[in-house]
Amino acid sequence: MDWIEVVTTIVLDVTAGEGDGREALQAAALASLELDLDLCLVGDETDITEQLATLAHDAERLRVIHAPDRVDSNVSARVAIGKAPRSSIAVGLDTVARTRDTAFVSAGHAGAIVLEATQRLTPIAGVKRAALAAVYPTLKLRGERQDPFALLLDVGATVDCSDDELVAFAVMGSAYARRISVNPHPRVALLSNGTNAEVAPPPINLAHRRLAEGDFDFEYIGCIRADQITRGDADVIVSDGYTGDVVIRTLEGVASTAHALLRQASDRFRWRLGVSMLGRGIERLRELIDWENYGGAPLLGFQSPVIVTQSNSHRRAFFNAIRLAAKVERTGAIAEVTDCVERLQSTRGRAHD
Amino acid sequence: MDWIEVVTTIVLDVTAGEGDGREALQAAALASLELDLDLCLVGDETDITEQLATLAHDAERLRVIHAPDRVDSNVSARVAIGKAPRSSIAVGLDTVARTRDTAFVSAGHAGAIVLEATQRLTPIAGVKRAALAAVYPTLKLRGERQDPFALLLDVGATVDCSDDELVAFAVMGSAYARRISVNPHPRVALLSNGTNAEVAPPPINLAHRRLAEGDFDFEYIGCIRADQITRGDADVIVSDGYTGDVVIRTLEGVASTAHALLRQASDRFRWRLGVSMLGRGIERLRELIDWENYGGAPLLGFQSPVIVTQSNSHRRAFFNAIRLAAKVERTGAIAEVTDCVERLQSTRGRAHD
What we know:
The structure is a homodimer of 353-residue chains.
Chain A: E1 9-13, H1 22-34, E2 38-43, H2 45-52, E3 62-66, H3 77-83, H4 88-97, E4 102-106, H5 110-120, E5 131-142, E6 147-153, H6 163-180, E7 187-191, H7 202-213, E8 219-224, E9 236-238, H8 241-266, H9 271-277, H10 280-288, E10 297-300, E11 306-308, H11 315-330, H12 333-352
């Protein structure tokens, strides 16, 4: 059985992100009524209590932890966490670190979350650098659950990556996909500037050789170009954090452009009639570009699940992130990642004998 | 007056690219009838002559130059050009190098074109590394011509860039945009992983400081994230060739995914009716993602115009590339690039005094 019958607690960062916390609280209130989990709300206690009073919720399932500081999203991660020692990110991660069966969800400064997690959470043995894995939409469905999305990692936790890191990310990403998408044998690719690894930058070329020669629980399909990302040829795509950030933000930019154009169309009276006549194509396009469906990006490399959502997330995005965090906790995805990294370590050990 | 009244000759590579050359020849035949320019067709002479006989064309405007070798697109650029010394790319670029008022158009192996151009064309004084500039669609219109696209460079000519190269690309890209989009004062940005240059990789951070402090004929607006690309905040975005390749191919991938979805919709009888009711939004989306509208990517850094089109280009893409090449020639865009690079050099000279 995959799902373990214990009550999962989601530690939800209410303060970080662009809004005033209202969207996160609305999601939490709804989750307390609809999902089988407890929530720990981290932020300004007075403010949270006041706002909660106006929302339908199950008080038995909600607890509030006070965090007075707010992380400034406009400065570098190091400066931001230095100025906010008791931020919702710091307090939330501390809560996760000392409690079993908990997961952290935040829409905060991604760099600050990575730095704070590195300082406060227990790393998975053998993982030197964390990876933030973004979920992105593709046309192909994958795994037993027919998920319409794939995984790209890293998208910003580790800007500059060696071949060691790229191989570790392949192992972590495929382990995560195995549990979350119920995809026993994920197809893994390295993102590059061509399918010929010889022309790739040195770390990618080295990682390519190790992935091609190694014995892994996934199918390594080689280097791919970025136009193959959305086609969905790979279930897991591995990249350094700089390039991954550029890819995921390019996709976001296109999605918001397409949204704006579709909104222009829907401003017209004829829109509703038109769309109902278009069948599934346009509807599918709208679903694919709607990031709030996907629930956020797991930060891999720690013994506790951490889900980072977009800073401008709305209620639905927070709700989906809470659900995803519970799923990561209950499916044992982190244990799977840990096992796979351990196997990689022992293979490396043998290779060095 | 911007347009100089001489007959421009476009040297068109018929052989390179994915197809059998038929699409390029159809475009050339049409261009000979509709555009005020001469064409030099490079490829297998017998084959070109036979195929031309079946197409309506103006024989006065077409000339054929034989090139027996074919560049293999599946190997690295260096290997490919080594195996094909008299390819359509090599012969075509030689023709351009020794003739005034000519421009080269090819759908061939971009890496091979860059390498052959470096060996056969005269570089612009002061330009050490070439940049391939891709045109990409944005929502905003720009310049006097209200062009719905902006420029991203480099997208693959120079994979690893120093700050020197990034600054030179900013100067070349803005000079090109000034003439082609009739945009006297283009807004230029550096692509990065955030708007704070402090967190950018070192070459970007250094280039940022020089662009912010220097005195240029363009408005430097700082570092931008990749989601700002399609929003159109910048007219010219500067990047190293590796990251630029990833961006442009990500955009291609999304475009082809969206195309596939729109095609699914159009397979239904109801589509036509639906689309006509949607007004401009969807139509605009379709136009924006249709790469064949844009005519190809200029390769900047040489004294002759070179336009690289996608390897799977159809007739319309070739026709637009021919037209763009003539426009680059006639508007004096290369002279503008040369002047601006010269000014950059003299500023650097003074700075070092």
